Amino acid sequence: MILIKCPYCGERDQSEFTNGGEAHVIRPTNPKSLSDKDWGEYVFFRNNPKGIFYERWVHSHGCKKWFNAVRNTSTDQILKVYKVGDKRPDLSDFENTLKSPSGEPFVGSGNFAVKK
Amino acid sequence: MRKKYSFLSLIKNAFTNNENWQKMWESPEPKKGYDVIIVGGGGHGLGTAYYLAKHHGIKNIAVIEKGWLGSGNTGRNTTIIRSNYLWDESAYLYDHAVKLWENLSKDLNYNMMFSQRGVLNLAHNEHDIKEIKRRVSANRLNGLDTMWLDKNEVKDLVPIMNTENLRYPVLGAAYQPRGGVARHDAVAWGYAMRADELGVDIIQNCEVKGIKTDNYKVEGVETTKGFIKSSKIGVVASGHTSVLAATAGVRLPLQSRPLQALVSEPIKPVINTVVMSNAVHAYVSQSDKGELVIGAGTDGYNSFTQRGGYDVIEETVRAIVELYPIFGKMKMLRQWGGIVDICPDASPIISKCDVEGLYFNCGWGTGGFKATPGSANVFAHTIANDEPHKINAPFALSRFSDGRLIDEHGAAAVAH
Ligand SMILES: Cc1cc2nc3c(=O)[nH]c(=O)nc-3n(C[C@H](O)[C@H](O)[C@H](O)COP(=O)(O)OP(=O)(O)OC[C@H]3O[C@@H](n4cnc5c(N)ncnc54)[C@H](O)[C@@H]3O)c2cc1C
Ligand SMILES: [Zn+2]
Question: Most B CBs within 10 Å: which of A15, A44, A96, as the mutation test of the B interface?
Answer without folding.
Answer: A44
